[in-house]
UniProtKB/TrEMBL annotation:
SUPFAM superfamilies to which the protein is assigned, alphabetical: Homeodomain-like (SSF46689), RmlC-like cupins (SSF51182)
InterPro entries to which the protein is assigned, alphabetical: AraC-bd, Homeodomain-like_sf, HTH_AraC, RmlC-like_jellyroll, RmlC_Cupin_sf
One annotated GO molecular function: sequence-specific DNA binding
Domain HTH araC/xylS-type: 160-258
Protein name stated in the entry: AraC family transcriptional regulator
Keyword hit for DNA-binding: yes
Keywords: DNA-binding, Transcription, Transcription regulation
Amino acid sequence: MNTQNNIEIDELDKSYFVWFENNWTHDDVLHYHERGQLVYVESGFQYITIEEKIYLLPQNHAIWIPSRAFHKTNSHSEKIKLMIMFADLHKKDPFYQEVNVFSVPPVLKEMIKYAERWSKLTVKNDDETVFLKALFNELPHFVEHSLKLHICLPKDRRLNKVIAHLHDYYRNDIKIEDLADRAHLSLRTLERIFKKETGLTLTKYQQILRIIKSLELLSSGNLTISETAFEVGYKSVQAYTRSFQSVMQFRPTDFMKNIK
């Protein structure tokens, strides 16, 4: 499936296609493109499911989605400024073969903004081709480290109620025994199946949920770090900062500097 707002992306006779919107709207239909795509959030935030994993794309972050990767939009902020850049690439660099979420450095941000001039242009343009070829050639070098911040959706239906409860009550203290009762499984069986399906322990899954939600709240600009910490269930800013740093490898204050 390769339709984007009534434009057949993969049918265009050009290597690159740029699409920018001040107030992006997108349905939640699972689809893929023959082309890879770079999605950049200028303001707001976006949740995207890719190959049964949910990714958060905060403000001033981008995600590279490889060719033919099934994906859909889950939800987004009330108003979101979004740039999508499609590229027909045949590169061997491993970067282009896997999903990468990363903070956009100033130079790349300016290049993306410059590319707005070609938004929705469906015919070939030599200047666009030269510029975007350079951008995508350098893209792996702009990414110092990708954020492996995602949560997997388990396929085992026995975990449905467990996942639903974790997502609804992630900010609360949750007893693993209660989750086992919900799944009608023994504690040991639940822990084994959950780790196999998600790659995470129940405790780590809840921690990542809290951090993902906090990134959403911080990128909205409506709450301070302290307010965010308590909103997602931490009893102190210090505990939140430690948890944030263990997941993200940098502190909440560093994240706030980046989104300004």
